Amino acid sequence: MPNVVKFVGALSTSLLLFSANASAAHRVTRYFDQPDVRAGEAFSPMLGCGNEELISGGYALDIPPANPTALVVSASYPFSDHVWQVVVRNVSSEPVAVQMTLVVICS
Questions:
Q1: Are the beta carbons of 97 and 36 closer than 8 angstroms?
Q2: Count of alpha carbons within 13 Å of 72, Cβ hemisphere only?
Q3: What is the pLDDT at residue 52?
Q4: Using an 8 Å Cβ cutoff, are 102 and 30 in contact?
Q5: What CA dihedral angle connects 83, 102, 63 and 4, to 10 degrees?
Q6: Angle (nearest 5°) at CA 66 between 97 and 86
Q7: 0.85 exceeded by the pTM?
Q8: Three-state secondary structure of the chain
Q9: In the chain, what are the domain boundaries?
Q10: Alpha-carbon distance values, 26 to 22, 57, 77, 103, 107 (Å)
């Protein structure tokens, strides 16, 4: 199973992950913007490696919500070893904007 990394700081942290797996691997990055995740609902961006093997993945919340406990984030591999999904659930009583970057390492 691929490694999962939560990037706590800037996305440049992904360079460390990329360096650790750089032998025959490459990084795929995608930005997601969901302006209004309503209370109790979820936003589920996915990023994949096509026919290549998914080695690891990570995410960064580009703009954290004002309420630090508003979001619950989990990562999973729902469809195949080539696709990585992050589920961001709004557990607050107010709508929350989610801006995040996903990174996967493929080989």
A1: yes
A2: 8
A3: 86
A4: yes
A5: 80
A6: 45
A7: no
A8: CCEEEECCCCHHHHHHHHHHCCCCCEEEEEEEEEEEECCCCEECCEEECCCCCEEEEEEEECCCCCCCCCEEEEEECCCCCCEEEEEEEECCCCCEEEEEEEEEEEC
A9: 3-106
A10: 7, 12, 19, 10, 6
- Which among 76, 94, 96 has a CA at the least distance from the CA of 86? 76
Q: Which CATH number fits the domain 3-106, given the four candidates 3.10.400.10, 3.10.20.600, 2.60.40.2080, 3.40.50.2300? A: 2.60.40.2080
Q: What is the pLDDT of residue 80?
A: 61
Phi, psi of 27, deg, nearest 5: -100, 140
Residues whose CB falls within 8 Å of the CB of residue 95, separated by 6 or more in sequence, listed in order: 36, 37, 38, 39
